[in-house]
Amino acid sequence: MNNQAPLWSALWQQADRISFHMPAHRQGRVFSREWIESLTSCDTTELERTGDLAIPSEHVKEAYDLAADYFGAGETWFVTTGTTIAIRVMIASALFEGDVIVMPRAVHMAAVHAVALLGLNPHFVTSANGRRFEDGQPDAESFIAAMRTRPDAKAVYVTCPDYYGRTIDLRMIATEAHRLGMALLVDEAHGAHFAAAPGILPPTALSQGADYVVQSAHKTLPALTPASLLHLSKDGIACGRLCPQRVAAMVRVFQTSSPSFMIAASTDLARAVISREGHAPWQRLAELNRRVVNLLPAYYRRVAPPGSDKSRLVLDYSRLGRGRTEMVAKLDDAGIDAELIDHRRIVLIPAIDQPESDYDILARTLGSIIPSKNDVFTERHVQRLEELENLRDSLFSAPASWQFTPRQALFGNPSYSGRSETMADVADSAKTYCDRATKFASHVIAPYPPGMPIAWPGEGIDDRHDTYIQLLQEANIAVRD
Ligand SMILES: Cc1ncc(COP(=O)(O)O)c(C=O)c1O
Question: Which CATH number fits domain 280-368: 3.30.470.20, 3.80.10.10, 3.20.20.240, 3.90.1150.150?
Answer without folding.
Answer: 3.90.1150.150
